[in-house]
Amino acid sequence: MAGYVSDAVIRRLPGYYRHLRELEAAGVTSISSQELGKRMQLTPSQIRQDINCFGGFGRQGYGYNVSELKGHIGEILGLDRLHRMIILGAGSIGTAVAHYPTFSREGFKTIAMFDVATDKIGTRMNDIPVLPMEELEKFLSENHVDIAVLALPAAYAQETMNRLYEGGVRAVWNFAPTDLNHPEDMIAVNVHLSDSLQILSYRIAHRGE
Amino acid sequence: MAGYVSDAVIRRLPGYYRHLRELEAAGVTSISSQELGKRMQLTPSQIRQDINCFGGFGRQGYGYNVSELKGHIGEILGLDRLHRMIILGAGSIGTAVAHYPTFSREGFKTIAMFDVATDKIGTRMNDIPVLPMEELEKFLSENHVDIAVLALPAAYAQETMNRLYEGGVRAVWNFAPTDLNHPEDMIAVNVHLSDSLQILSYRIAHRGE
What is d(CA A187, CA A183) in angstroms, rounded to the nearest whole number? Predict the structure, then answer.
């Protein structure tokens, strides 16, 4: 990447990747900043600025090569690497993550799920084994894990995150509706579903203001 | 609300609500901007600014009344109203939304789910009936729906959103991994799970930079 990249640009990266993947699938080989901006509801100059920021893909007047740009943004996002994931909690959120169709295509491979429910332990979900939560430490000592998905009730999330940290995991994707305390060298990204629904509710309540 | 509220403040509102709910549940009746800032990883002055922006709850030196502030923010978020929801798609994401424990407590009541799979139609999920997708128009003509949850493959999302709009629905919570085109009077909030996981992957790839 060319120097400092702002959080706002980082947040837009997956959107670029998604639109370029859709364009590639539709057989589009080249796209102008005008056309891409229209799709993404950004101005052409914003598009050019962002793409320059990703590392100088500027070829104004000719359009951007869709596959090349997609590949480049995929690398920046780390999608050219394999990420080994585990899912903590085999409830409905954990199950949804285990079945999500695009994750494995993008290099996110779930190698195990953990739960405390005896009727789930020993089964497989989308071919992923469900192991007893008490075997977490043993599993982490024998397997390298890049990302742990927290799909547990809020009350168990912090304690489980601490166990993951002790076991060497340094990145957590948290679905529990709580903010976790974590050491600085632990990366945590939250998906707070309730927050998102409340933003929708806010927009409904303040419609037309 | 006191005048213009920025998008950044709106995005923080659910976080305030969540922390205040946790504090209330823990029996805390009053909290200072220092303590709340520490929990939320914001500066005390940011907290005071935000809360002034919500409508002048400033009582510096005494701390904020937790229940009062939570109630006030809940009203701003529209959580004092009942929202009638339907879920399009009874796959793993739709199922997770149907079972999410806090939505009904916050006034989001799912009244029906729709799917095309004959083995799902006629069943109930968390006591919510699963209806055939072809009955969507009939259902919308007979029932008021505030929010439609799109939990469908990307390929069906746009077409379904058009049908919802035709049927009078004006707010969509979209889990399909695609950006929808919608008229200006349709509110759409996206949960792009893949984008969130890619942000985590970005942070792993650029750790320590």
Answer: 9
Domain count, chain A: 2
Write down which residue in A47, A76, A105 finishes a domain.
Answer: A76
The yes-or-no verdict on residue B2 having pLDDT over 50 is: no
- On whether residue A176 sits in a domain, the answer given is yes
Does ipTM come in above 0.95?
Answer: no
The reported pTM is: 0.91
Name chain B contacts of A106, Cβ cutoff 8 Å: 194, 197-198
CA distance A146 to chain B (A): 9
Q: Which residue has the tokens 């037309």?
A: A208
How many CA atoms lie less than 13 Å away from B116 in the CB half-sphere? Answer: 5
Please name which of A52, A64, A54, A125 lies closest in space to residue A90, comparing C-alpha atoms.
A125
Pick among B145, B201, B207 to test the A interface (most A CBs inside 10 A): B201
Give me the helix-helix angle, B44-55 and B7-25, nearest 10°. Answer: 100
- Nearest CA to B172 out of B161, B185, B159 is that of B161
Q: By CB neighbour count within 10 A (0-12 exposed, 13-18 middle, 19+ buried), where does A179 fall?
A: buried
For residue A101, name the pLDDT band (cuts at 50, 70, 90): confident
Burial label, B130 (beta-carbon count in 10 A; 0-12, 13-18, 19+):
buried
DSSP-derived secondary structure letter, A30: E
A63, amino acid identity: G
